[in-house]
Every structure is written in structure tokens, then in C-alpha cells.
Design goal:
The protein is mainly beta. The chain has 2 helices and 22 strands. The longest helix has 22 residues, at about 15-35.
Length: about 270
């Protein structure tokens, strides 16, 4: 870790570059630690700054600290704000580049003339406003109720991740993910004697297609999950009707990882 050696017999000239060196001594390791704990995410709340509803009419957010694409920035609090005119209100954070005027001072030159220096204390911060969740922006970050902090990111990463029931495109079939395991629930409709997709939107199998049921008799049902996420279902006679697939399972190519749906990054290039 960087440090300034002060063992020069009580005397050592001090330059602005020395102050930069001292600042880097603690900002670099803290930044590196938060970046590592944040699991490569570009924008997330470190602590505080999670919106909540004090009552049915208002939305508020406490102050906190936020990881802003490589920077640790303070977040100003949002006082309780009336949101009755909003359909789905969230808090939008935008960066403010700010120089604290209290840092201004007069500099005395060698010829004893003075010069005012006004940009000494750099104090950038994030400011909150209330916007619609559905609104489109090209910059900034939006936070909804339940947004994850760094603590939540770590808890979800270390826990066994299990999804809610997620519907396929048809609405007749759902699936739940637990790690790499995918469990089906519901019925397959429009089953015929030819192999055709009856639903789509399912996790890609671990190796090629996933065959859930092989035909050994003419009336047996054939079920296959393709590498395109489509579910194929057919029977040799077409006599299966709307077969129940609840409880059938297969392994996905990638494990399920819970994500934070309430931290919306409006910086798609970052």
C-alpha cells in the first residue's frame, strides 16, 4: 500500500503530488475491494440509498454511497415526495460535478501578489429525482423499491439461487430454476404427430437438446428442449391431448443467477 515516508530527519518538502500520493494510498485499495465485491457490476448501491414508501402517497430514499462505474460517490437523500401522479415511480440518480466553495483560498505568489484558487475541494455527488419506471433515458441509473445494496449482491451470490415460476411464451407451461436444474409445470397444447414447437422461452440445455421422454411405444409422448429454448412435443398417434408435464426436469447450460430487477442501468455502453 502506498505511504509517504516521513523519516527524513524532521525535514521534507511537501508538494501537491505528495498529497495525490497520500490520497491514492487509501482510495485505490478501497476502490479495488468494492469493485471485486460487486462482482463486475458497473452500477450498484453500496449502502443506504434504497427507495421506500413512507406511506401510500409518497416515495423517499435515505442518503448513502453508490458505485458509479469505478467511482464511489455519495448520494443525496430524497425527501418524501408525492407520487400519486405516477403509475410506477422510481428514483433516478444523476451525477453532479461539484466543487465545494468552502475550499476556496487565496494563494500568495513569490512577488507577494495573490491569486484566488476556487477549485480545491472536488465533491461530486449523485442527486435523486422521481421518474416513471417505464421512461427511457440514455444516462443515469434508476432505483426502485427493493433495489439491492452490496450486501444483497453478496447474499444472493452465495445463496442457492432459486427463481420464481417463469412462464413460457404460450402461458400454458412454466418453469422454475434451481442452480442448473430446470423444473417444468403445466400442460403442452396443440400436440400433433409431427415434431413441432409448442412453446418457447426455456433455458438452453447443458449439451445440445434435452430429451425428456423417448418413445418406446407408438402412443408414447416425445418431449425435447432445443438449443434455441423451444419446447417440442409430439406423439406418434397424436392421441395425448394436452399432456401434463409437471415435474419433468433437465439441466441448463448455465446456472441460474438471481439479478436485481430494481437497479436499472441507463448507460448501456458501460
Amino acid at each position: 500500500m502506498k505511504k509517504l515516508n516521513t523519516n527524513n530527519v524532521g525535514r521534507m518538502p511537501l508538494w501537491e503530488a505528495d498529497l495525490d500520493w497520500m490520497q491514492a494510498g487509501y482510495t485505490e485499495p478501497i476502490t479495488a475491494l468494492v469493485a471485486e465485491l460487486g462482482l463486475s457490476k458497473s452500477y450498484f448501491a453500496i449502502t443506504g440509498c434504497v427507495p421506500y414508501k413512507p406511506d401510500i402517497k409518497t416515495l423517499a430514499m435515505p442518503a448513502g454511497w453508490f458505485w458509479w462505474n469505478g467511482q464511489i460517490l455519495p448520494v443525496r437523500a430524497l425527501q418524501a415526495t408525492d407520487v400519486l401522479s405516477f403509475t410506477n415511480p422510481v428514483v433516478r440518480l444523476t451525477k453532479v460535478t461539484y466543487t465545494n466553495p468552502d475550499g476556496a483560498r487565496g494563494f500568495i505568489k513569490t512577488d507577494l501578489t495573490t491569486q484566488q484558487v476556487s477549485d480545491v475541494w472536488q465533491d461530486d455527488y449523485l442527486t435523486p429525482t422521481v421518474v416513471e419506471r417505464s421512461a427511457a433515458f440514455t444516462a443515469g441509473v434508476r432505483l426502485g423499491i427493493g433495489a439491492w445494496t452490496l450486501r444483497d449482491i453478496l447474499l444472493h451470490h452465495n445463496a442457492e439461487n432459486e427463481s420464481d415460476w417463469i412462464s413460457g411464451e404460450s402461458g400454458d407451461l412454466e418453469f422454475k430454476r434451481v442452480g442448473r436444474m430446470v423444473v417444468l409445470r403445466g400442460i403442452a397444447t396443440n400436440v400433433t404427430t409431427t415434431m413441432q414447437a409448442v412453446d418457447t422461452g426455456f433455458p438452453v440445455p447443458i449439451s445440445g437438446d434435452a430429451v425428456l421422454h423417448l418413445a418406446t411405444q407408438p402412443d408414447d409422448l416425445n418431449i425435447r428442449i432445443g438449443s434455441n429454448g423451444q419446447l417440442y412435443c409430439w406423439s406418434q398417434t397424436g392421441g395425448q391431448g394436452d399432456p401434463l408435464l409437471t415435474g419433468m426436469m433437465y439441466m441448463a447450460a448455465t446456472p441460474y443467477q438471481a439479478t436485481d430487477p430494481n437497479t436499472i442501468n441507463d448507460n448501456p455502453q458501460s
